[in-house]
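in:
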């Protein structure tokens, strides 16, 4: 995964972040959500909730766990260092594919 790509995705407006924002995208049948990225230090409870929502509303949606923590992801998307981001949704299939290049 490429951290620089996260900033580009955010600046392009193709990202929703935070549990509530991602939850809305998962539940919206018209959303163009392409994938969900979880920080490596996200709580087990939050992970469980995200997987539950995915399984209920979009069982084919890919979820990936990043090697970065919440603070690193927050900095990568240009948020102040005190802003932590543990869950984010990528709203463009091309960006999702680019982010997940191995």
């Amino acid at each position: 995964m490429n951290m620089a790509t996260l900033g580009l995705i955010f600046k392009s407006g193709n990202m929703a972040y935070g549990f509530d924002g991602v939850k809305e995208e998962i539940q919206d049948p018209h959303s163009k959500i392409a994938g969900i990225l979880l920080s490596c230090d996200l709580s087990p409870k939050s992970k469980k909730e995200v997987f539950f929502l995915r399984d209920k509303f979009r069982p084919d949606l890919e979820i990936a766990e990043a090697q970065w923590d919440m603070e690193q992801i927050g900095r990568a998307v240009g948020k102040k260092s005190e802003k932590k981001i543990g869950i984010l949704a990528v709203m463009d299939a091309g960006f999702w594919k680019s982010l997940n290049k191995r």
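note: The longest helix spans residues 44-57.
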